[in-house]
Amino acid sequence: MVLKNLKMTFKRATSGVEVTRLYPEKIMDLPDAERGVHVLEIRKCIGCGACARICPNDCIKLVAYSRGNPVKNKKLQYPQIDYGRCMFCGLCVDDCPASCLIMSKQFEISGWNREDIIYDPEDIAVGLYSDQELAELAEEARKAEEEKKRKAAEAAKAKKEKAAKAADEGDKGSGEKAAKKKKAE
């Protein structure tokens, strides 16, 4: 029996057929449907939090990250993922309305501490803005906010003028009614 097993081992060793994978040296091709580490396309993210709400393991939470788009994401909140809790189900990817969260083929996640496998937006983000782009976006957001405040002030002023005009017409109308009433008597 022992010789039979040794014969099989020798046959496999000399046939050139790969029995085990040489993992760190040779990484195998992964299938297209592989669910690995998440990738956040920061230019698309609107910070809605749909990914955090749908996560069954509650491993995604929104955290502040200043290098995002203040025009699309006014709160500058982006997903942080705890891979110690993630089961790679893909619900967060499916539920994302902006399609900014995708799953890559990167599967190696390791660390010495639990905090090492909690990935912040900076760790998973791609397409980061340059400092110049961030300054331009901040200026654009400031101008949009000023325009919004100006329009709100104009609307309030118009509403006030309309109310005052209605009150004047009401006074005139009540004065005319009183004059008609006196005439009728």
Automatic annotation (TrEMBL):
<dbReference type="InterPro" id="IPR017896">
    <property type="entry name" value="4Fe4S_Fe-S-bd"/>
</dbReference>
<dbReference type="Pfam" id="PF12838">
    <property type="entry name" value="Fer4_7"/>
</dbReference>
<dbReference type="GO" id="GO:0016020">
    <property type="term" value="C:membrane"/>
</dbReference>
<dbReference type="InterPro" id="IPR010226">
    <property type="entry name" value="NADH_quinone_OxRdtase_chainI"/>
</dbReference>
<feature type="domain" description="4Fe-4S ferredoxin-type">
    <location>
        <begin position="77"/>
        <end position="106"/>
    </location>
</feature>
<feature type="region of interest" description="Disordered">
    <location>
        <begin position="145"/>
        <end position="185"/>
    </location>
</feature>
<feature type="compositionally biased region" description="Basic and acidic residues">
    <location>
        <begin position="145"/>
        <end position="178"/>
    </location>
</feature>
<protein>
    <submittedName>
        <fullName>NADH:ubiquinone oxidoreductase I</fullName>
    </submittedName>
</protein>
<keyword id="KW-0830">Ubiquinone</keyword>
<dbReference type="InterPro" id="IPR017900">
    <property type="entry name" value="4Fe4S_Fe_S_CS"/>
</dbReference>
<keyword id="KW-0411">Iron-sulfur</keyword>
<dbReference type="GO" id="GO:0051539">
    <property type="term" value="F:4 iron, 4 sulfur cluster binding"/>
</dbReference>
<keyword id="KW-0004">4Fe-4S</keyword>
<keyword id="KW-0677">Repeat</keyword>
<dbReference type="GO" id="GO:0046872">
    <property type="term" value="F:metal ion binding"/>
</dbReference>
<dbReference type="GO" id="GO:0003954">
    <property type="term" value="F:NADH dehydrogenase activity"/>
</dbReference>
<dbReference type="GO" id="GO:0009060">
    <property type="term" value="P:aerobic respiration"/>
</dbReference>
<keyword id="KW-0408">Iron</keyword>
<feature type="domain" description="4Fe-4S ferredoxin-type">
    <location>
        <begin position="36"/>
        <end position="65"/>
    </location>
</feature>
<keyword id="KW-0479">Metal-binding</keyword>
